[in-house]
Amino acid sequence: MGYKHFEEYNIKVTEDVKQRYERIIEDLGEDITRDGLLKTPERASKAMQFLTQGYSQDATEILKSAMFKESYNEMVIVKDIEVYSLCEHHILPFFGKAHIAYIPNGQIVGLSKLPRIVDVFARRLQVQERLTQQILDCINETLKPQGVAVVIEASHMCMMMRGVQKQNSVTTTSGFRGQFEKIETRNEFLKLISNKFS
Ligand SMILES: [Zn+2]
Fold first, then answer.
1. In the predicted model, what is the mean pLDDT of the chain?
2. Which of 24, 75, 151, 157 could disulfide-link 99, Cβ–Cβ 3.0 to 4.6 Å?
């Protein structure tokens, strides 16, 4: 299950969404026959399909495709995973970094799969809180580790562009399961992902 390629867009969906974008652009007061806008509805239609392709992907399957028996039982951390998602309240981007850690319980997962499942859940209409929770639950239920932790730090364009709050504010969400519910383990993880460490 890879990323969507240009030729894989559903023709009917592409056409339907394109026609709706034409209406939206007109309703906003633009001239859709203007040169620069001629192909915009189609491009926007494909862009939105790309950015929401997570609906048709299965994060559990992605993890299962690369799980290995292994006796390693120390903390595994993948930090600074790029996150690009769309806030479901305004359909505007929010973006930032995710940090994931888990403590194996007889099984490890291919490290490249963690950024992949971040994408699967991020490429939907989302709120940062649910995105954090879904990544956490997926790893916890599939890999059944001794513990799992997810921290996401993100900037929201709906706040930044509309000047609702401080322009440079970053929203942090986190979730902890198993061993990470213990304060020492959680603190060790938070220390390891903090900027001082990088
Ligand atoms: Zn928003």
1. 93
2. 151
Domain total of the chain: 2
**In this predicted model, what pLDDT tens digit does every residue of 133-171 receive, in sequence order?**
999 999 999 999 999 999 999 999 998 888 766 667 899
Sign of CA dihedral 30, 35, 38, 44: negative
Structural domain harbouring 110: 59-194
Q: At 13, which amino acid appears?
A: V
Same domain, 69 and 118: yes
Give 86 Cα–ligand 1 centroid separation in angstroms: 8
Is 5 designated active site?
no
Could you tell me which residues are beta bridge partners of residue 69?
A: 107
Can 87 be counted among the known catalytic residues? yes
Q: Are 162 and 117 in a shared domain?
A: yes
**d(Cα 65, Cα 120) in Å, to the nearest integer?**
15
